[in-house]
Amino acid sequence: MSRRWFASVRARATLGATAVVAVALVAAGIAVLLSLRGDLTGRADGEADAVARQVAGRIATGTPYAALDLPDGEENPVQVVDRDGRVLAVSEGLTAISGTGVPGVVPEASPGTGRDADDDADDPEPGEIGGTPWHGQGSATVDEESDDYRFSRVEVTDPRDETVLVYAGASLGAQRDAVSTAATAMLLGLPLLLGVVACVTWLVTRRALRPVESIRGELAEITASQDLSRRVPEPGTHDEVDRLARTTNETLSALESSVERQRRFVADASHELRSPLASLRTQLEVGAAHPELLDVPGAVEDTVRLQHLAADLLLLARLDAGERPVGAPVDLAVLVAEEAGDRPGVTVESAEPVEVTGSRGQLGRVLANLLDNARRHARAEVTVTVRRMGDLAVVEVADDGPGVPVADRERIFERFVRLDDARSRDEGGAGLGLAIARDVAVRHGGTLTVGVSPAGGALFALRLPLADSR
Prior knowledge:
Layout: H1 2-7, H2 9-60, E1 78-82, E2 87-90, E3 94-98, E4 128-129, E5 134-142, E6 145-157, E7 163-171, H3 173-225, H4 240-289, H5 296-320, E8 328-331, H6 332-341, E9 346-351, E10 355-358, H7 360-377, E11 382-389, E12 392-399, H8 420-425, H9 433-443, E13 447-452, E14 458-465
Parallel strand pairs: 9-11
Antiparallel strand pairs: 1-2, 1-7, 3-5, 4-6, 5-6, 6-7, 8-10, 11-12, 12-14, 13-14
């Protein structure tokens, strides 16, 4: 059950969207925490700078180290040392410190460092405070409580021209609390937000895929009932699902038409085969009972008719199966001369050498079908021309017969279709010749159309791409 659930598009879309949002939120949360931490660190550095410069200013004006009045050590621990690392002053209550490079927290008395309170000498000139402070991180213990601090170091020269270093710290407790609070809020809010994303994605995906499920269900019923006249519902939303439904219905329509054509084809083939078979059987039965009455020419004629019909059906089946013509050069002028030479009443008026690419056998079959059709309907003569027209080879077969009505000029290319006049005059045709001719022309990238000849009869025009134009 779990495998089937995970195999659904809805489940995969929900899991995928949730995973993407989770990754994005985690990345954004980390960026926010780092930015917050950096901002609070910068503020701590600024606070430490201010305290260090404040103490350095007092030293520069000559205030004795014992009388510096340093700030509260718990908030801003201060350590004043000389260049030799001797501790000159520390904040009250400071018992340990790290991160400044000088671990001492007990001031050392040293002559020449600062002024005594009762020094009655003339006031010296004020000292100088260094420019860019140094920043570092460490810890300090004040009144037995340890904490992390950001330290700022400022160099200052006192009035006696002695340089000392002032280290001042700013507590990182606010930074730690703020980052911890933000991280906790994110950890608590992340599952809730992911749950909302998953629910919304699940609902939206279900709504979007509901028409797809309807299409699937209808297709399943069509498959079960084999009723190709049914169609899937179209949601009318003008989106991909709507286009899928329309395309599915178009496919069903094409399939229904194909199946219907196949059924008609089988029925018409059975009908066409039944007549010569019945005639042949009758002749054979009569010949078996009365050998002197056996019509051998008639039996041979029916056999030939069956042979031709079987060959036509086989060729149509191969064309329907998508058989591609052989890509060999074929000279249509030579092919027309061969096909017209064996047929009386056919005149080749003009036949310039025109070469195309295709199957010589299939193209010969097209010309033979067109010539046979023209001879059956012509009153006196059939004329054939072969010429070039741009990048096309054109073969025209014209007769002086009654012609083809405009309404029937497409219908005659359908399989097993014979006009009433043709049916009365053609005792052997099955109505497949023109259908085969057009199918072969299309398979060769060409066309086959019918119009009016100069003599008023039918004019069949076969157009094929020239061999050098492919």
